[in-house]
Amino acid sequence: MTRAIVDLDAIGHNTTVLTGAAGRAQVMAVVKANGFGHGSVPVARAALAHGASWLGVTSLREAMELRGAGIGAPILMWLYAPDDVLDEALLADVDISVSSARALEALGRTAGRLGRAAAVHLKADTGLSRAGATAADWPHLLTVAGKMQAAGLITVRGLWSHLATAEDPADPGLHRQLLDFGHARAEAAAAGFTGPLIHLANSAAALQLPQARFDLVRPGIALYGVEPIPGRSFGLRPAMTLESTVILTKRVAPGAGVSYGHDHVVERETTLALVPAGYADGVPRRVTGRAEVTVHGVRRPIVGRVAMDQVVVDVGDLPVSAGDRVVLFGAGGPSVDEWAAWADTNPHEILTGIGGRVPRCYRGRSAGKTISTRSPSRPEECALMAPS
Ligand SMILES: *Cc1c(COP(=O)(O)O)cnc(C)c1O
Fold this sequence. Notes:
Elements: E1 3-7, H1 8-22, E2 26-30, H2 32-36, H3 40-49, E3 54-57, H4 60-68, E4 75-77, H5 87-91, E5 94-98, H6 101-114, E6 118-123, H7 138-150, E7 154-160, H8 172-190, E8 197-199, H9 203-208, E9 216-217, E10 240-245, E11 248-252, E12 257-258, E13 264-265, E14 270-275, E15 292-295, E16 298-303, E17 311-316, E18 325-329, H10 336-342, H11 347-352, E19 360-363
Parallel strand pairs: 1-19, 2-3, 2-9, 3-4, 4-5, 5-6, 6-7, 7-8
Antiparallel strand pairs: 1-10, 10-18, 11-14, 12-13, 14-17, 15-16, 15-18, 16-17
Helix pairs in contact: 1-3, 6-7
The structure holds pyridoxal-5'-phosphate (PLP).
Pyridoxal-5'-phosphate (PLP) binds at residues 30, 32, 78, 162, 202-203, 218-222, 228.
């Protein structure tokens, strides 16, 4: 059946590449969205064992999953609504990103009620126009933060922003963001915030922009072994292999229609192999007519529409039979980048789209010590498959 083999040694190797590139900056392993689909807890443990010292997540729920697994490393979470109840974050020592005075004041009330200061990272919007305070709102945010820190309600532990075009060092917008981040830092320093950690860089910036590294870098996609900069290689190793099993084969005559709508009609006699992986498992519906998988070491096309639970592969005259292994992507198969191109998307969407019902099976030296809390896999699902 379909499963995702996650090589934790690759996560470790990629972390080592990133800590090497980061120089004196610390590394925050971004393990949001269930570790980009790989399993946040095992990925976090592997990254921390190889030199990462911070973890980055989107939501409180994701942060609490890490704490619940006994991970004590510093964690930053960055998306919530100002009325969300964040008591758990304060009690579990989870740092919180703050983009507005309103959110800061709400946190201050929580801190006052709990008798416990909130650790915050003030976020500046330097040109992405998502989270963060604009240049116009930044001074007010600093003023409110200064008062609340003096009152013991918050500790400002970080000053940060996020880049829009880090893959392209020639992009003028990138240089404008670096300049605007400089202004935001200068204003913060003038307001008395001289100690907080400064951080800006995602994977691409961590690897190619020394001037964006500051105190801490926040790689996501590179950690999982996808090269973040088109045309450049940093020796990263893909961590995930998505594999499945042929569950039925049949010989069909010319004229046979394949899958819903009969978008594909067989032109010459061939063997069709049924593979139990569909869009609920992360095979995007829009790859129809483009995607290939590897079976018996040979690339063969997915034919007809991708269904929720299954696809059909035209294996031609290869001697494929039920039980044979199929690689959708990863070691011995197409790359995640190829899937992203077939689906007109980025590798991030392919990896985070792997469905919740797909077991994650861990390999590598640290795998034995690892338990995924999100999708605990039964041992038989993760037994080694005979290569076909
Ligand atoms: C997702 C995310 C990252 C990681 O980005 P990559 O491009 O995957 O390295 C870093 N910082 C923030 C704020 C993010 O949301």
